[in-house]
């Protein structure tokens, strides 16, 4: 059995990690940490986990095989030295996802620049072979995962794209924020980032495409939809061929129907799963391509992808503990 510790288990992604790991047939949870909730039973924070015999601890010295850092951005680089060499590390913050120049452009100064090059970018559909040998894995951002997987087949052919993102409230994390309370968040379609979203850095790094994000908060608890626009002389048959690279990918579904409500990706139909649904349309007159990419930000955009990376890094079947269908209706 693989012993797994979740550092920062009180957040939404931390809670989903615990849920997935608790059901994983090859994993034993060795520790779930939280300074704020030290000593409390886990269901006091995550009521859906009632029945798990786990308590939060603030003791960060534990014997484990893999450590998931489910901590806020900027925290991992402050605590990484405490864990280096003791276990495989899967970091779910943004601290080690991109090179130093991009990090400085989008985030500012880095406290551990010498470690950035040691981390593998944990997007299995692109970096599977590197992940197999990795000791340090940087789990991608939720928006970045959706956009990169949709755009990657166009790497080298497209230089610029416009990305419209509709994101849910859970993407903002669990910390108290007036913008996320129900009276302010309900019934909104609110623009909160029109340029220079931090996940652009990951897209630029992985696809070499200058993707400009505009992000909207919408009235969803979980899930996101990326709508991506660019011009290219092509046709629908060729667009289908672009996505042949994903035919053997367990968690990528190409959604392109001729009609009906579900003819293109919708986050409603991936909730609770590790799937990303990708679709497209093309207008010959304007030569405009529109891509659509939907995923659950807490699963394929977070905890599920982290478990997928763990499976690969430990030589397990990649889908182990993740091979289930989305929840519907929701």
TrEMBL record:
Ranges for domain Semialdehyde dehydrogenase NAD-binding: 3-134
EC number(s) stated in the UniProt entry for this protein: 1.2.1.38
GO biological process: L-arginine biosynthetic process
Gene3D superfamilies tied to this protein: Dihydrodipicolinate Reductase, domain 2, NAD(P)-binding Rossmann-like Domain
Keywords, in A-Z order: Amino-acid biosynthesis, Arginine biosynthesis, Cytoplasm, NADP, Oxidoreductase
Biochemical pathway: Amino-acid biosynthesis; L-arginine biosynthesis; N(2)-acetyl-L-ornithine from L-glutamate: step 3/4
Protein origin, superkingdom: Archaea
Main location class: cytoplasm
InterPro entries per the UniProt record, alphabetical: AGPR (IPR050085), AGPR_AS (IPR023013), AGPR_dimerisation_dom (IPR058924), AGPR_type-1 (IPR000706), NAD(P)-bd_dom_sf (IPR036291), Semialdehyde_DH_NAD-bd (IPR000534)
UniProt GO MF annotations: N-acetyl-gamma-glutamyl-phosphate reductase activity; NAD binding; NADP+ binding
Subcellular location: Cytoplasm
PROSITE patterns named in the record: ARGC
Cross-referenced HAMAP family: ArgC_type1
Function: Catalyzes the NADPH-dependent reduction of N-acetyl-5-glutamyl phosphate to yield N-acetyl-L-glutamate 5-semialdehyde.
Family named by the database record: Belongs to the NAGSA dehydrogenase family. Type 1 subfamily.
Record protein name field: N-acetyl-gamma-glutamyl-phosphate reductase
Species this chain originates from: Thermococcus litoralis
Gene symbol of the encoding locus: argC
């Amino acid at each position: 059995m693989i012993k797994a510790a979740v550092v920062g288990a009180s957040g939404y992604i931390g809670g989903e990690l615990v849920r997935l790991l608790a059901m994983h047939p090859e994993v034993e949870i060795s520790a779930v940490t939280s300074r704020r909730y030290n000593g409390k039973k886990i269901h006091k924070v995550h009521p859906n986990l009632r029945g798990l015999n786990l308590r939060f601890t603030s003791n960060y010295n534990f014997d484990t095989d893999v450590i998931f850092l489910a901590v806020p951005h900027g925290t991992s680089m402050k605590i990484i030295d405490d864990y280096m060499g003791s276990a495989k590390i899967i970091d779910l913050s943004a601290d080690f996802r991109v090179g130093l120049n991009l990090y400085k452009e989008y985030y500012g100064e880095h406290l551990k620049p010498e470690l950035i090059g040691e981390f593998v970018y944990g997007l299995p559909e692109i970096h599977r072979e590197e992940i197999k040998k990795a000791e340090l894995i940087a789990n991608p951002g939720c928006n970045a995962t959706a956009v990169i997987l949709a755009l990657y087949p166009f790497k080298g052919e497209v230089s610029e794209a416009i990305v419209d993102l509709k994101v849910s409230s859970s993407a903002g994390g669990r910390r108290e924020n007036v913008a996320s309370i129900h009276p302010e968040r309900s019934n909104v379609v609110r623009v909160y980032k029109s340029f220079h979203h931090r996940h652009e850095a990951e897209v630029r790094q992985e696809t070499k495409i200058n993707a400009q994000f505009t992000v909207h908060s919408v009235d969803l608890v979980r899930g996101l939809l990326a709508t991506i626009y660019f011009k290219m002389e092509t046709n629908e048959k060729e667009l289908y061929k672009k996505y042949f690279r994903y035919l053997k990918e367990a968690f990528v579904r190409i959604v392109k129907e001729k009609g009906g409500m579900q003819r293109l990706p919708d986050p409603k139909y991936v909730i609770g799963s590790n799937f990303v649904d990708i679709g497209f349309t093309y207008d010959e007159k304007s030569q405009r391509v529109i891509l659509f990419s939907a995923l659950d930000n807490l699963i394929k955009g977070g905890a599920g992808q982290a478990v997928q990376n763990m499976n690969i890094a430990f030589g397990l079947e990649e889908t182990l503990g993740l091979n289930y269908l989305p929840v519907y209706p929701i």
